[in-house]
Design goal:
alpha/beta; TIM Barrel; eight-stranded parallel β-sheet; 16 strands
């Protein structure tokens, strides 16, 4: 006999509307959705029932693994701490970012991120994890060792997203030297002379390595069905380059023109949920709310604050951006799932995975009441 769970008296957020109704789960899948309430099952008391959130870009695991410069925490312990915080924020599918390639002021040794991926796979096999964990490789294409790091992930079926990044000065995220100096000098304590030498080397590395590394990595992803993301596109030339590389996801465009061009070309435009919560970018670039108002915002990511992913959609739906609750929730569920080819999740529909979140809207900060992954309560 199949296992069955019933939720009733819930406000169920579908793709196009919200209904007061009942949902039935059988064997980890959504089996029935009906308007009205029943006498059977768990009474949600009018709480919202939304799809489990799909997180495409989070650096949060890295903070647990390396909580201080030079400190490395036990990988399994770091993964479990990260996973617990992810799940409690309503995120049932998470793409953990692993850094590929490094500049001389940071990064990990060759093999270190491969070890982390192996630890993630082992943790999942041992049923340690609440959420479903997949891999997002953040490839610093201007780093000389980017392809060496990438090589270790060829053939890994958990790699479902790869982003092409170049954090060299004077372009993309750091279009002004003032912002670049503020970030790197503040982070490393370099003198003016040391910083000037550092900038010269980073620009030279970008000129030598960025283009061939982009082509090599994007080519591999095209051959193996891995979604590719651009990163910090700032100009129309950047967007054209991304389109030529087969990019599906435009992460953090830094100008309205780049966001518009990406969206018009059919790329999903991703911005940070912390940007919505704070009302501005931490690096001084375009505000995500501006893109929402213009109709160019498709996906949100928690980036560095997991709970922001559940908070931001409610702020957008309650604000003056002209966005309904189903539209806002789709930014963190249906659209990210669709962008990377996860067709079995991201919406409340019969036959989809029962990845679900019970949430109470309570002013500016919603309350996550319970979280289910394939019908099993995980938080």
């Amino acid at each position: 006999m199949s296992a069955e769970t019933i939720f009733t008296n819930a406000r169920i957020v579908l793709l196009d509307r919200v209904i007061d109704g009942t949902l039935v789960i059988r064997d980890g899948r959504i089996a029935e959705i009906a308007e009205g309430r029943t006498n059977a099952g768990e009474d949600f008391g009018g709480d919202l029932l939304i799809p489990g959130l799909v997180e495409l870009h989070t650096d949060h695991l890295e903070f647990h693994y390396s909580p201080r410069p030079g400190v490395r925490w036990d990988k399994t312990a770091a993964i479990q701490a990260h996973d617990a915080q992810i799940a409690s924020a309503g995120i049932t599918t998470v793409f953990d970012c692993l850094r590929i390639g490094s500049d001389e002021k940071g990064g990990y040794r060759v093999g270190e991120m491969r070890d982390m991926a192996d630890a993630l796979e082992a943790a999942a096999a041992e049923d340690r994890l609440r959420s479903d964990h997949l891999l997002h490789l953040r490839c610093e294409v201007s780093a000389p060792d980017a392809l060496d790091h990438f090589e270790a992930f060829k053939g890994d079926r958990n790699v479902r997203l790869v982003s092409l990044m170049d954090h060299a000065p004077g372009q993309r995220q750091f279009q002004t030297m003032e912002k670049y100096a503020e970030y790197y000098k503040g982070k490393s304590g370099m003198s003016d002379a040391e910083f000037a030498d550092f900038v010269e080397r980073r620009v030279a590395a970008s000129l030598e390595y960025a283009a061939p590394h982009r082509q090599a990595i994007a080519g591999y992803c095209a051959e193996h069905g891995i979604a590719v993301a651009s990163h910090d596109d700032a100009t129309l030339d950047h967007v054209e380059e991304s389109i030529g590389l087969g990019v599906k996801l435009a992460e953090f465009p830094t100008s309205l023109d780049a966001a518009h061009a990406s969206h018009r070309a059919g790329l999903s435009v991703l911005m940070g949920a912390p940007n919505i919560v704070r009302g501005k970018s931490h690096s001084g670039n375009i505000a995500a709310r501006d893109l929402a108002e213009a109709g160019y915002l498709d996906v949100l990511s928690s980036d560095y604050v997991p709970f922001s992913l559940i908070q931001a959609p409610f702020l957008l739906a309650d604000g003056e951006d002209g966005m309904s609750l189903p539209q806002a929730i789709a930014l963190v569920t249906a659209t990210p799932a669709h962008t990377v080819g996860l067709v079995d999740r991201g919406e409340i529909a019969v036959g989809k995975r029962a990845d679900l979140v019970r949430v109470r809207s309570a002013g500016a900060v919603p309350v996550v009441r319970s979280v289910y992954r394939e019908g099993r309560r995980v938080a």
